[in-house]
Every structure is written in C-alpha cells, then in structure tokens.
Amino acid sequence: MIIIMRRGATPEEIEQVKAKLEGLGFGVHLSEGVKRTILGAIGGDKSKIDVEQLMSLPGVERVVHVMEPYKLVSRAFHPDDTVVEVGDVKVGSGTLTVIAGPCAVENYTTLLETAKEVKKAGATILRGGSFKPRTSPYSFQGHGLEGLKMLASAGKAVGLPVVTEVMDTRDVEVVAQYADLLQIGARNAQNYPLLKEVGQSGVPVLLKRGMHCTYEDWLLAAEYIASSGNTQIILAERGIRTFETHTRNTLDLSAVPVIHKLSHLPVVVDPSHATGQAELVPAMAKAAVAAGSDALMIEVHHNPQTAWCDGRQSLNFQQFSQLMDEIRTIAQAIGRKVAA
Ligand code: PEP
Ligand code: MN
Question: Whole-structure pTM over 0.90, yes or no?
C-alpha cells in the first residue's frame, strides 16, 4: 500500500499519515521526491487499513494498493531513480558508467597495468575477483585477502574505486574494508543470509541476477538487501540459463527496460558472462547501451590466452579501447554521455 501526498503537503500532514500507519502496525518508508512525497506501508495487516479514512486525512491525494511483493526496491514506493555512489562515481545518474578489469586478481603487476589501461580507455570502476565462485573445486579459487589488498592498492594507485565479489557471510566485513562496491555473484543471488549481511555492511552492492531467477526473484533478492538497511544497490543482468548452448548464458536485454519500469535501482549489463565469448562482447555491450543500461561490466585481461579465469570471454586492451570508442558513439546517438 502506498499513500501519495498532494504536491505541497506540509510536514505536519505527512507526519499525521505516518503516525496513523505506524499506529496500525505498519513500518513506513518515506520517499521525498522532487514533486511529491510518497509513504509506503510495509508489513502489517492490510485488512486494518480503511482506505476511505486514509483518503480523508489532510494532504492525501491517493491511496494505491501495490501488487508487487517487493516494496523498498519498487518504482511505486520510490518514483525517482536511485543513484548509487561508488567512491566518487555516480551510477544511475544518466551518465553511462563502465566497470572493467580481470575476472580474477592474478598478481599486482598485471593488475596495475590493467587498471591503468582500462582507466585510460574510459572505465571508471575497476573490477577483480579475489574470492572466486568456480564451477569446479579444482579451479583457481582466488587469492582471498591478498587479492583484496592488491585490488584496493591498484585502485588507489590509478584513482578508481573497486568492486569485488563476496561469497560468504564470514567474509563480508573484511571485503567491505577493501571494496567500494560489494558484488554478489549469480550463484549466490538467492543466498538470503549473505544478502542480509551485505545489506548491513553500509557498502553499496552490485547484485547479479541468478542464472535461473525471474525478475521477481531478482527484485525480491534486492529487497532482502534493502530491508536490511541498504538501498544502494545496482542490479546486474549477466545472462540466464536457457535451452541455447551456443553462448555461455543468454543475455536478457529486456531486463533493462523492465527493471527500469519496476524498480528505481540502476541496471548494469555484463556481456562477458552473458556470452562467454570475447568476440560477442562488443555487440552485446553496444546493444545494452542502446537499451538504456546505466552501466556495463566488462572483463579485460592483459593477455586473455593466459588468463587464470574466463580468458575466453575477456577482451584485450586494444579490443576494450576500441569498444569504448564505439560505445561513446552509441551513447551520444541516444543523448547520453559516458563517464570519464
Ligand atoms: C564474475 O563477475 O566474475 C562472476 C563470477 O560473475 P557471475 O556471478 O555473473 O557468474
Ligand atoms: Mn568472470
């Protein structure tokens, strides 16, 4: 249930509606938009709400029943776009943000070289996994704490904020010390204890869509983070499992406009994990920009043939730089800028 206040409703009128809802046992989420204030009633027993009575309170314009099971992340509860602040980078502000870097942190020298190159090409957030969710237990699992330290120092050295994955509730505290953005991977997209833990960390979260998640599953996963106290969430479309086996996953580009309609949270598209093939990344990255994605996340490696993880889908420096040039053209064509 949301209560939309009239334009110019006074703080006293808003307070009166809030008190009424709280008195009925609801939690109240207040969204003070540019144009008007919206109060969202969370939890509680809807049958206790007398719509006529609420409508008669001064300042109330409309009472709307919200059908969606997610609340805090829904567009209905919060009509204005949320801008997620990652260091000094603003994701969802209308300017396209590009996140780039290796799948996994391998060593400091090559990470630093990659950080410099992706920054030069126009990326504004550096990525690099240190706790890696590998399909096989025999594959490289990441450098853990040492990798986090390397990532944070490379980011500092070049002046880029960093994003890295956290896979375990026990690691959230330490990863939050080194990362500017916590990544929840596709395999953990519905790990509810982990979602609650990152929700309490105070650090923005990049939530990948689970490979089997519907939009509703995905938004409810985000709701776990939001209801734990953190609405600084970026939703990442990284491809879903379908019957098609040619590509690693199937990039679901409809997610961009649909999520923008259902939610106020910014969307990032990851064409690297979606396709699994470097030669398909540019086409899908450009399509994502044209579709209105707020950001892109792209795997870049100094020498993809020798990468310890996901080399097949990683762009080399030259390919990434060329893609950035092409992206600028697409962004310009649809009236958007690329962050630099
Ligand atoms: C990654 O970003 O390196 C990763 C493992 O992604 P996903 O969780 O989408 O597979
Ligand atoms: Mn990867």
Answer: yes
Architecture of the domain made up of 2-64: 2-Layer Sandwich (3.30)
Mean pLDDT, rounded, for 117-139: 97
248 lines ligand 1 (CB under 6 A): no
Residue whose token pair is 């000094």: 88
How confident is the model at residue 221, as a pLDDT? 98
Cα dihedral 223, 227, 229, 235, rounded to 10, equals 0
State the span(s) of the chain assigned CATH 3.20.20.70. 84-333
Residue closest to 141 by CA, chosen among 105, 109, 171: 105
Asked whether the predicted pLDDT for residue 72 surpasses 90, the reply is yes
What does the pLDDT look like over 281-325, one tens digit per residue?
A: 999 999 999 999 999 999 999 999 999 999 999 999 999 999 999
- The interaxial angle of helices 215-227 and 255-262, nearest 10 deg, is 50
Kindly report, as residue ranges, where domains of CATH 3.30.70.1140 are found in the chain: 2-64
CA 313 to chain CA centroid, nearest Å: 21
Q: Which of 130, 151, 208, 272 to mutate to test the pocket of ligand 1 (most atoms within 8 A of CB)?
A: 208
CATH topology of domain 84-333: TIM Barrel (3.20.20)
**pLDDT level of residue 45 (50, 70, 90 thresholds):** confident
Ligand 1 atom closest to Cα of 129? Answer: 3
Q: Any idea what the Cα angle at residue 298 is, between residues 304 and 264, rounded to 5°?
A: 165
Backbone phi, then psi, for 315, in 5-degree steps? -85, 150
What pLDDT shows up at residue 90? 98
